[in-house]
Protein 1
Amino acid sequence: IQSLIIDCDPGVDDAVALFLAFAAAEPTLLAVTTVGGNVPAHLTQRNARMMRQIAGREDVPVFGGAERPLKRPPAGAGDFHGPEGLGDLEPFAPTGIIGDGPAANAIVDLVMKRPAGSVAVAVLGPMTNLALAMKRERRLAEHLGPVVVMGGARSEGGNITASAEFNIWADPDAAAVVFGSGCEVIAFGLDATHQVRATEARIRAVETIRTDPARTVAALLRFSQRTERQVVGSDAPPLHDPCPIAWLMKPDLFTLKPCRIEVETGSDLTRGHTAVEFRVDPATARHRWAVAAEGQGVFDLLTETLKAK
Ligand code: BDR
Ligand code: CA
């Protein structure tokens, strides 16, 4: 993999993932694309541009994307992200430019003009933009590098319904397009992300770093900690969206298993459920599911990367 596109719906944990990628030496960040998800699309786009400005990375274009899922009405996860998507951060009007054209077109253009397999796409929200890109350009799936996604639930059940994780539930039809496209997909679902938790000590470690990006990350983690206490009654919120980015930077932090992942699109009861079939031939399997993550290792990577910047 040489370069990366991040497709996201910031979103508190999306924002932390962006800061990790903005500060990372590799892979090269080609673009950020945004989608309606945790909050509506005009806010996720603004939020990504705010984070870009705080990180001093105006060199990275931000493209706005789909306002609604392929077939379902738009959902939202404001409880966990605050009404504007970034917890209690004070919103401001960012100055950096907005990329020309919708996210799906940008994904097609950026991937198709580079060598096959060289561009990874990290999807940290509903998969609408990537599904639209695949519909627009049939050769995209075979030209793409790995698609690394935060999404899916298996062993402990879901976080939005008994069966489903929010990103897949929000646009199950788009997820079915991506998982069914034949491209390589590595999924970081709740089995893995629930092992990466922002404990008090880990938040304090970020708070010792005296830069604007680190201060922003610390404020986002504190907000998540308060929300987790109120909504779930636990002390250490899971840090979902940085996981796929951390894997691209340091694969040893995760244990992956070859599989085939299919998404329930029909049933109202189990909509967005990810059926993860491990009885596959590892030599030909196109999907991998993260079964374990080293939580401390992911936080060490985050703090070291923020410090190095
Ligand atoms: C996912 O849902 C969103 O609320 C988070 O940003 C994350 O991408 C976790 O289920
Ligand atoms: Ca997200």
Protein 2
Amino acid sequence: IQSRLPNVGSTIFSVMSALAVQHKAVNLGQGFPDFGCDPHLLELVTEAMQQGHNQYPPMAGVPVLRQTIAQKVARLYGHQYDPETEITVTAGATQGIMCAIQCSVHPGDEVIVIEPAYDCYLPAIQLAGGIPITVSMEINEQGFSVNWAKLAAKITPKTRLIIINSPNNPTGSVLQRSDLNALADILREPHNAHVLLLSDEVYEHMVYDGAQHVSVSAHPELAKRAFVISSFGKTFHVTGWKVGYVTAPAALMTEFKKVHQFTVFTVNTPMQYGLAAYLQNTAPYENLSDFYQAKRDYFRAGLSQSRFKLLPAQGTYFQCVDYSAISDLPELAFAEWLTKEIGVAAIPVSAFYRSGMESGLVRFCFAKQEQTLALALEKLVRI
Ligand code: PMP
Ligand code: GLN
């Protein structure tokens, strides 16, 4: 058949994970924890199944989970979403992102994507018939940042959506309140009234050095025109469960639900009940930044003994490094060499650029047990 996504192959995450398995390398490539979740969460999900919560839930998700999400968002970010009309539980963030794009982007619409960008945005835009317009982040000693004037210059009458992602995969950079204010200043212009926002906040609970996650939900002016995306997979160490959620004003959510209901109709019931009960305790997500900061610090301390140059890592469970002191191979070739010859898998940052732009960087995932990180570090410091 004639492909609708002719330039798409397997994702870099699948490719590098397979290579890691093949070469028995320590897999710091694909982002997922190598440790289990809280056993209490497993009990709560099991109880939900035993109590008979095994049939279709309502299309937007079980009411108690939507209410719990509304309370969580209101408590953390001060925005009250209506659980009936403004929250949908999704099959991971990926499905939320796909449906948000399909419901809002018409053929020929332009969508602004800030690069490096997570890999699911561009194919979703392409399937909608949209035209991705990319803006590169700038990089200096402080790490990656968005130049908002550069982004503003890309807005045209055809711009339908701007996608932002903070904490950012792969760079680990986080947007500040001043960034959201700069974006709000741009979108407040009457000639930009047609522009919507998609804010991918799946790493909202992984922000380091005392910084706070600045959610679009906490910015009333931006929240009015935004789909905000989150994922329980990231927050509770259960990436394979694929449960996330989307919040948006009712007018946007009405359109979102039209696509959601014919994409998956709804998401598995027992996990939703289990998660709703588990969310009653705020500690697991409130302590997550400390938990991952300890891993980040351990990994960075180890890498500081190597020839890799560390970039700042303010959020997410990713650490980008500059390998120019070690090799002048292109990023993919270097990541493959690292996997095969050194025994540590990484992800080339070029995979997050449509053009495949090279910056001499690879990304490591530090959501691993200390013994895994220690094993990887032992190999990395010897190069
Ligand atoms: N957005 C970003 C930035 C991600 O890193 C990921 C997961 N790697 C997702 C979305 C998708 O999340 P989920 O697994 O919940 O679909
Ligand atoms: N989001 C994860 C990462 O960035 C991978 C998820 C996936 O494999 N699609 O590594």
